[in-house]
Each structure stands twice: as structure tokens, then as C-alpha cells.
Design goal:
By secondary structure, the protein is α/β, with parallel strands linked by helices. The protein is built from eight helices and five strands, in the order βαβααβααβααβα.
Length: 208
């Protein structure tokens, strides 16, 4: 793979989408490479259909392991259809969530177990983790207030109980320790411009 793959993680309302969009232009200028912006769940036609099933608030009876399996299936399709071809074409891939989200949300939030969910997703991605993961950290209450301000309503995962979101954030903190070579924490409670500048600095330091 000639390009490089950067994922962005964080609790709901961390501002990942905003940061990613603002990084595109400076990365193109700095590298001369094409930048692909994508997301999970979703990112391709089939994966987006799975996304709709996962996040639909009407699916109240969905089993937690069914949810985890659907995320892994969506991720596999997205990886082979979008991410790997882009990297092979020497492009930079900026992905809003990847495997760490499943470990945090299903492994920690739903308490299925970090190791079990990690193993499930390793099967799906065949060890193809991002080159760099920027974890945008924000207190749970702050993040959920941001989501509310958007006025679109909560999806099925955003609407979980506060304790669920606290477990998600705690699991991310564990991942930061075990995946320190890949994951870098950024304080996302700062102004968006500051967060973007910090992320760009981390990327530049990592890839010179």
C-alpha cells in the first residue's frame, strides 16, 4: 500500500467530521496527494445499507452481538471496496471511525468484551489497522450536548443511557494505553481551529 490511512475516533459529539473536513485542504497542499474522506459504518453502497440498519431507532430489538457482527460486515466491505484501493493508488484516507469504535462501543459500551470484539474485527480486516488513529477526547456530557444542538435527534447508539457512553469513553482510554504506537489523544473540548491545528501537527510529525 503506497498511501496512508488515518482514522479518527472519539465519543459522540467529539467533532470528528468537522475536523476531518478541515484537514483535507492543508493535507493536499502539504503532500500533493489526493485525500479521500470516508466514514464508518458506511463509506460504500453496501456498507451504507448496513449503516441504516444499525442506526435505525426503530430496531429496538437488535441483539448486541448482531450489532457487532453488522459493524464488522460493514467494515469489511468498506475496507475492500474503498480503503484498500485508495491506498494502493497512493491516496491519503481519512476515515471517521474504524475498528476502535467497535471495541469501544460494542466491547465496552455493550460490555461484550474488548478482546472478543477485537478478535471479531481482526477477522474482518485481516490485521489491516490504520497507520495512525487520532482520538478526539471530550467529556461525555459535553459531547451529547453538542449532538443535541445539531437538532437532528439521536440515532440508536447516541440515544443509549449515560452509563453506556461513560463505558465507551473509558474503553477508549484503555485502547490509548494498549495501542499507544498508533493512537494519539487530542483534546477536542478546545475550539475547532485549535483541534484541527493539533491534528495536523501530529500528522506532520508522524509522516514528516
Amino acid at each position: 500500500m503506497a498511501g496512508f490511512f488515518i482514522s479518527f475516533e472519539g465519543p459522540d459529539g467529539a467533532g470528528k467530521s468537522t475536523v476531518i473536513q478541515r484537514l483535507v485542504e492543508p493535507l493536499i497542499k502539504a503532500t500533493g496527494q489526493e485525500v479521500i474522506v470516508t466514514r464508518e459504518p458506511g463509506g460504500s453502497a453496501i456498507a451504507e445499507q448496513i449503516r441504516h440498519i444499525i442506526l435505525d431507532v426503530a430496531n429496538t430489538e437488535m441483539d448486541d452481538w448482531t450489532e457487532a457482527l453488522l459493524f464488522a460486515a460493514s467494515r469489511r466491505q468498506h475496507l475492500v471496496e474503498v480503503v484498500e484501493p485508495a491506498l494502493a493508488a497512493n491516496k491519503i484516507v481519512l476515515c471517521d471511525r474504524f475498528v476502535d469504535s467497535s471495541i469501544a462501543y460494542q466491547g465496552g459500551g455493550h460490555q461484550l468484551g474488548m478482546a472478543k470484539v477485537a478478535a471479531l474485527n481482526d477477522f474482518a480486516i485481516q490485521g489491516h489497522y490504520p497507520d495512525l488513529t487520532l482520538y478526539l477526547d471530550v467529556p461525555v456530557e459535553v459531547g451529547l450536548r453538542r449532538v443535541q444542538k445539531l437538532g437532528a435527534g439521536f440515532d440508536r447508539l447516541e440515544g443509549q443511557q449515560l452509563a453506556f457512553h461513560e463505558r465507551v469513553r473509558a474503553t477508549y482510554q484503555q485502547l490509548l494505553k494498549s495501542q499507544s504506537a498508533r493512537m494519539v489523544q487530542v483534546d477536542a473540548s478546545q475550539p475547532a481551529a485549535t483541534v484541527v491545528a493539533t491534528c495536523l501537527d501530529v500528522i506532520q510529525q508522524r509522516y514528516n
